[in-house]
């Protein structure tokens, strides 16, 4: 007996070099929901006493699902089931209610993840705020983006970063996505005043989501191409998004996605009309729709200490943590941030009279990035108020989170979340590391691993710092030295944390290992072994003037948007260094207490760079005096060469062999300028580049890198073609001149050797990085 319904198809296709059996291809794609469908879903949601969402969110859910009638049936309450047929899930402190349905891939946006959020990222995650209705939590949160470009770049970054780690494209092409994606509605709010929009975001299953886009993009599409395809399908082209007159932004974007799906349906229809559908039909069919579990209701348990606006987000995070902390683990940094921020949130909601709840909420907002660094002066006030800088953010966070009683409670809550029995101060430092480096994580990514290892080794958490203290705001940390030596513990601990954070972030204080003993200064050698927090303790002793000056100058010199020249020696066989900042690189200098400005100089008057050897030695000068330092390999005197912008917005050096030597408070010093080599008086200030409007801001580096990769490939291929043409023409060129002059051949040879060397070094680093992280099995979704 036949039903008249066309049978599903199974075909064999070529996916790269592999032959893939694609099963259960539907002969047609689902059509979009209509406004009447949205009304049905909204009415059913309103009638359910266990759910509350804004009508615009119900509309987003109805627009995304392929079966709005079935979804309405799940929502409708009955006599026997007042909550309808919703899926019920009890998590820590709350009950989640969800609908299970199939949704359109092009209606799902990737949400922020602890794993990706704690990685070195160019585009920051949005700020997250809970939403309540009549005092009750809703199964929805607000994501605050700076502007529409921020949202676009964040979507692109998440897809790109996910596929750079893993992809299930082959598996999805074979049988489509088979496991539910955990999703929920969000309200996207833009800080520049752009109209808010309501969407569905994926919180678990990002790899499946991104891999479905990879299937649609086709075999051979790199992560950048897939990310661009997904971003433009979800948000339209950058030039047209949000600029067309007529309906609001949300309606315009929804209409753009609907047009994109209509084009895809027409393409699919043309593909399946033939006797045997091809690969393209399989790509579209297997990625067009995915299964999803959509949270629509939440209820906090009795006795739950969380405030209503935090219950839903904490419940979703509990679902993610139960999978990715206990089973399919995030990396250590993501787990640490998840643990310490949830521990702090628990303490806030306990209402302990020893602390001001509003102040703890401010500390929490600062820790997770919800409160920007620029708001520090207003947040903490005082006379003087702290400068609104990333370093002062770190100082205030360390001070707040190490108040003795609060510190012990945080450790207890962290142990409860992690399931451990004890937590040392080094263990607590491990939790703080990924919070402290949030503002400069992307700019200092070359040393992020070493910095977090230093926090794992105690960081700035010396015995003295954890006794409770109040930061002493200043624009010049050297002004705190005299106070510190005269018994002002607050000034001394401010110096310890400020200088310690700066030294750790710039890889001038690391978790030294056995191989560091006896190594040369410029190779990371140290005079003796010592834990990082012990070095900080020694540097900040009130009788150690050398150590206090080392801390103060490091804090004064610190920049959050770059790395100092003496923290990451970059060497190239071609002698070429890339510039990543429009400002000259900065340098931490060694301290000389006998010098007028306390900066050590060589016989030529050139400032001497600071090395980790000097930092460790300054923590215990008496002990260091017993160690004979290895000879420092002499090199050319530093020469300042200003960076010049190129036509594509990048910066290049005027002299490839030049190095720079400048601190944040001095003018650039050159070996050929005897006047400026003697001091910093009369120095010209460094003027930062003019800030650009949001719409004129350059694309994030990963997106620019995708363009340059394409240019590199085309350039090399073009060189190959040109060389082939030269070989072809060589017999026809007269003997009066070579096809390429010898001097030009020498220049080309040097250039090609340099390219080959850089490509090989990049290849080795990439291979080593992938090998160290290990493979992820196809069925194990890291998100």
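^ Assign residues to that structure.
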């Amino acid at each position: 007996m036949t039903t008249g319904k066309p049978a599903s198809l199974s075909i064999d296709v070529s996916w790269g070099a592999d032959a893939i059996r694609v099963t259960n291809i539907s002969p047609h794609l689902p059509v979009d929901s209509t406004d009447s469908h949205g009304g049905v879903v909204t009415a059913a949601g309103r009638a359910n006493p266990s759910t509350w969402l804004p009508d615009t969110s119900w509309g987003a859910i109805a627009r995304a699902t392929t079966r709005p009638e079935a979804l309405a049936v799940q929502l409708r309450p009955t006599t026997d089931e007042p909550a309808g047929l919703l899926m019920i899930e009890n998590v820590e402190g709350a009950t989640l209610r969800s609908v299970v349905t199939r949704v359109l891939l092009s209606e799902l946006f990737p949400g922020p993840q602890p794993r990706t959020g704690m990685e070195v990222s160019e585009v920051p995650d949005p700020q997250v705020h809970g939403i309540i209705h009549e005092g009750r939590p809703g199964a929805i949160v607000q994501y605050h983006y700076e502007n529409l470009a921020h949202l676009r770049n964040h979507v692109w970054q998440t897809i790109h970063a996910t596929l750079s780690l893993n992809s299930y494209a082959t598996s999805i092409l074979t049988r489509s996505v088979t496991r539910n994606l955990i999703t929920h509605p969000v309200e996207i709010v833009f800080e520049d005043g752009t109209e808010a929009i309501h969407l569905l975001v994926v919180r678990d299953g990002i790899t499946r989501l991104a891999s479905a886009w990879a299937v649609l993009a086709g075999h051979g599409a790199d992560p950048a191409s897939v990310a661009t395809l997904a971003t433009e399908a979800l948000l339209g082209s950058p030039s047209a998004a949000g600029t067309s007159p007529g309906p609001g932004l949300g309606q315009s974007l929804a209409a753009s996605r609907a047009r994109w799906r209509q084009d895809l349906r027409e393409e699919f229809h043309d593909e399946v009309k033939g006797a045997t559908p091809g690969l393209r039909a399989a790509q579209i069919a297997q990625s067009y729709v995915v299964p999803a579990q959509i949270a629509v209701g939440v209820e906090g348990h009795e006795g739950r200490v969380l405030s209503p606006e935090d219950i839903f987000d904490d419940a979703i995070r509990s679902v993610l943590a139960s999978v990715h902390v206990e089973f399919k683990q995030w990396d250590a940094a993501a787990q640490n941030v998840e643990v310490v921020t949830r521990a702090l949130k628990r303490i806030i909601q306990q209402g302990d009279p020893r602390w001001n709840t509003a102040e703890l909420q401010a500390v929490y907002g600062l820790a997770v990035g919800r409160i920007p660094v620029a708001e520090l002066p207003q947040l903490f006030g005082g006379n003087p108020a702290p400068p609104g800088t990333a370093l002062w953010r770190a100082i205030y966070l360390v001070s707040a989170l190490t108040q003795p009683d609060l510190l012990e409670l945080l450790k207890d809550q962290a142990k409860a979340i992690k399931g451990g029995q004890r937590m040392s101060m080094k263990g607590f430092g491990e939790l703080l590391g990924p919070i402290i480096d949030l503002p400069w994580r992307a700019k200092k990514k070359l040393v992020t691993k070493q910095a977090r290892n230093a926090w794992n080794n105690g960081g700035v958490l010396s015995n003295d710092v954890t006794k409770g203290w109040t930061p002493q705001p200043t624009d010049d940390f050297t002004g705190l030295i005299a106070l510190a030596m005269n018994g002002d513990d607050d000034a001394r601990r401010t110096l310890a944390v400020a200088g310690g954070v700066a030294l750790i972030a710039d890889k001038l204080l690391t978790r030294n290992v056995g191989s560091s003993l006896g190594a040369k200064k410029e190779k990371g050698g140290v005079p003796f072994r010592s834990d990082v927090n012990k070095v900080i303790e020694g540097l900040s002793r009130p009788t150690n003037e050398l150590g206090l000056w080392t801390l103060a100058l490091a804090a004064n010199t610190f920049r959050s948007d770059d790395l100092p020249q003496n923290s990451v020696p970059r060497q190239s066989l071609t002698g070429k260094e890339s510039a990543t900042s429009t400002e000259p690189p900065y340098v931490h200098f060694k301290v000389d207490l006998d010098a007028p400005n306390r900066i050590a100089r060589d016989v030529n008057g050139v400032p001497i760079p600071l090395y980790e050897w000097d930092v460790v030695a300054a923590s215990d000068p008496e002990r260091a005096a017993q160690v004979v330092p290895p000879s420092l390999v002499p090199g050319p005197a530093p020469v300042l060469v200003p960076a010049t912008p190129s036509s594509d917005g990048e910066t290049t050096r005027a002299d490839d062999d030049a190095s720079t030597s400048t601190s944040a408070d001095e003018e650039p010093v050159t070996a050929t300028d005897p006047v400026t080599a003697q001091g910093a008086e009369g120095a010209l200030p460094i003027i930062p580049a003019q800030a650009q409007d949001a719409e004129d801001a350059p694309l994030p580096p990963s997106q620019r890198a995708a363009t340059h990769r394409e240019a590199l490939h085309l350039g090399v291929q073009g060189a190959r073609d040109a060389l082939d043409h030269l070989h072809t023409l060589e017999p026809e060129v007269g003997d009066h001149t070579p096809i390429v002059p010898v001097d030009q051949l020498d220049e080309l040879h040097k250039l090609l050797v340099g390219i080959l060397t850089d490509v090989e070094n990049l290849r080795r680093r990439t291979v080593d990085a992938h090998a160290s992280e290990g493979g992820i099995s196809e069925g194990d979704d890291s998100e």
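The chain has a mean pLDDT of 80.
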